[in-house]
Amino acid sequence: GDQSPSEKMVEEFRRRGDYISSSVNQIPGFKSGKPEGAFYIFPNIQETGMDGFELSHMLLEKAGVATVAGECFGKYGAGHIRISYSNSMENLKSAVENIQVVMNE
C-alpha cells in the first residue's frame, strides 16, 4: 500500500534527531553522536563532573526536563544520559533551551 505516511514519519523523526543531537552538542559538557534509528540520544556527560543520576535529577528539578541516567542501562551507560526526542519539535526546542540555561549557570 501507500508508504507515504510512514515515509513522512521517518523523515520527521530524522529531522528531530538531527536537531536534538546538534543542539545538545552545543551545551557545555555534552557530547552526542547522531541517532541511527532510535528515538533517543545518549550523550556523554562526563565533562559536567556529574554522573547520570545527578545530572538527570538536576535537569528535572531546575530545567523541567526528564531524562534517564545512563547508569540505568548498565555499566557502559555510566557517564551518559538518555534523552528521548519522541515529542514535538516545539517541546524539544523548549527542553534544549531550558537545559542550556541550567548548564550555563
- Number-wise, the strands total 3
Series of H and E elements? HEHEEH
User: Percent of residues in beta strands?
Assistant: 5-15%
What is the percent of helical residues? 40-55%
Provide the structure class.
mainly alpha
Report how far apart the termini are.
Answer: 52 Å
Number of helices: 3
Q: Largest sheet, if any? A: 3 strands, antiparallel
Unreliable stretches covering 5 or more consecutive residues: none
Broad shape: globular
On the 0 to 100 scale, the average pLDDT is 96
Q: Give the radius of gyration.
A: 14 Å
Strand order, biggest sheet?
1-3-2
Please describe what this structure looks like.
The chain is mostly helical. Helix content is 46%, strand content 8%. It has helices at residues 4-24, 52-63, 89-103, and strands at 40-41, 68-69, 81-84. Strands 1-3-2 form a 3-stranded antiparallel beta sheet, covered by helices on one side. The longest helix has 21 residues, at 4-24. The chain is globular. It starts with a helix and ends with a helix. The mean pLDDT is 96.
